[in-house]
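Input record (one chain):
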Amino acid sequence: MSQEEIPREVEENLYSGEQVSYLLRRKVGLEARPKYLVVTDRRVIYIDLKILGRYDFSDIPYEKLKQVSFHKGMVASEFVMEDEEGRLVKLGWLDREEAERALVAIRDSLNAIAVEPVSIQKRKGLVGGDLLLEKPPEVVSRT
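The corresponding structure, as predicted from the sequence alone:
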């Protein structure tokens, strides 16, 4: 991914050495500025750009990511991510193909850090479908 594609607001919030795996941009209708779903090698970032340089920023590190649900409809798709504390990040009206590529990037990044493979549940319908990625709980113990 080229550095020109990454918005300044995303770039200034990346950790040192953090690499962007996939960048999903959403801009619908009359919204002045786009929203982004950024998949990096360490976390998933959601950023909602506002006018006059303002923005809302939210991230979920892979260690704290509990599940990602993805609904693919006839026209668009929706992401819902949940962390271990129950906080939800929703991003709707995404391009179906781009959203699927982002989901694959999240799955691969989760599998790279998870102790056990990520659980996948799929439901295919006539027009769309649902997919759920769930990271198994990790237990730390001392012996």
